[in-house]
Amino acid sequence: MDRKAGALAVAILSAALVALTFIDPSPLIAQPTNAATAGQIDPAGTGTFSILGYDPATGELGAAVQSRVFSAGNGVLWAEAETGIAATQAIVDVSYGPKALALLRAGIKPEAIIKSILDSDPDPGYAGQAWPKAGRQFAVMDPKGIYAAYTGPEATSWAGNKGGKFCTAQGNILAGPQVVDNMVRNFEQTEGPLSVRLVSALEGGQAGGGDTRGQESAALLIVKKNCGVWLHNDTVLRLQVDDNPEPIKELRRLVEMSVANSRRMRRASPGCEGVNGMPK
Prior knowledge:
Blueprint: H1 3-21, E1 48-55, E2 60-67, E3 77-80, E4 84-90, H2 96-105, H3 110-120, E5 136-141, E6 147-151, E7 160-164, E8 167-172, H4 178-189, H5 194-207, E9 217-223, E10 235-241, H6 247-263
Antiparallel strand pairs: 1-2, 1-8, 2-9, 3-4, 4-5, 5-6, 7-8, 9-10
Helix pairs in contact: 2-3, 4-5, 5-6
């Protein structure tokens, strides 16, 4: 290359570099495409199906949940012995759980609790995005198994709830109504401790298509006054499978282990006969 051609090449390269300096890089960088970027709800954090249940033979209150999010049990399930149990999900406001327990303590009926909590929700949004209370979903059950449930009109489809005998099932981003139908049927038809019936309900929901995004976490919570392990413990079971490709399967393994341990007890504490498989 002669001296003139070399100089020309350097000049062209320099001009190209200067031009690149002023190119807007945004089209070259992958942009987020989730709904939150557009100011809408990101469904990645909302899909769940859960069940609340009561065992009149033992007085246990319990709930179980499955979702395609990490550690769904961290905010969905709330319970207090001799008070009640609640699940809060979908476009979730976690404060609905403790608020429901406080109103149950005050003797308010589940149906009135649903209305009170919704009416008092200021609908503040979340993390700079719309998070409308019209998309909330929650359920409340009192110590005798009387319950109420709500699915907001803006909960991500398919969303709904179904009541049964001493149980209510609810979910969103589901394959269809067969999910909650199966949950109620399995709960009502399964024999054995409440923990086993709750897991069976989740299995039924999953068999119906479950959360359309798949599986990741599951949890179970059961309470009965002074019937937990050791002294002054009202928590019969608190199990969480936070990250697993088959969380319901793992939850069943843990539940069956806990029931086997209960059945090995020589006797149950007074008032705890039959709880989670304890001797009657």
